[in-house]
Amino acid sequence: MPPNLTGYYRFVSQENMDNYLRALDINVVLRKLVCLLKPDKEIIHTGDHMVIRTITSLRDYVMDFDLGVQFEEDLGPVDGRKCQTTVSWEGDQLVCEQLGEKRNRGWRHWLEGDQLHLRMTAEDEVCVQVFQKV
Fold it and tell me: What total number of domains does the chain contain?
């Protein structure tokens, strides 16, 4: 049975965000700004339904979805694209596949103790973020 990810998580660290954003064709000014942000995550996990809020001082991004059901995700606030997105479990990891213009786009969330890990991919770039449960 997969873990319940419900909780509020504070930003701890990130690696390789600039190169990940470059792979998404984000301009240099926005890349520098995003790299300075320290986002928090709020996850509400109820059965097969999830809401993941990424909270920053600039703007929030909300994903509201049913597990295993493909939906059109509007990534306009991120990079101006739309993707066909499916989120499902692979063992204890929550895995998101975002099909669209960019190859190998998606992410994985998993818990290690009371830390939430996020691994984001686009093209050949990987960004890893870590959050601490509050």
Answer: 1
Summarize pLDDT for 40-52 with one digit per residue, the tens: 999 999 999 999 9
Give pTM, 2 decimals. Answer: 0.94
What CATH number does residue 34 fall under? 2.40.128.20
Hey, how many other C-beta atoms are within 10 angstroms of the C-beta on 60?
Answer: 13
Q: Is residue 64 one of the residues assigned to a domain?
A: yes
Farthest CA pair distance, the chain: 43
- Cα 43 to Cα 21, 63, 70, distances in angstroms: 23, 10, 19
3-state secondary structure 32-95: HHHHHCCCEEEEEEECCEEEEEEECCCCCEEEEEECCCCEEEEECCCCCEEEEEEEEEECCEEE
* Domain region containing 106: 7-133
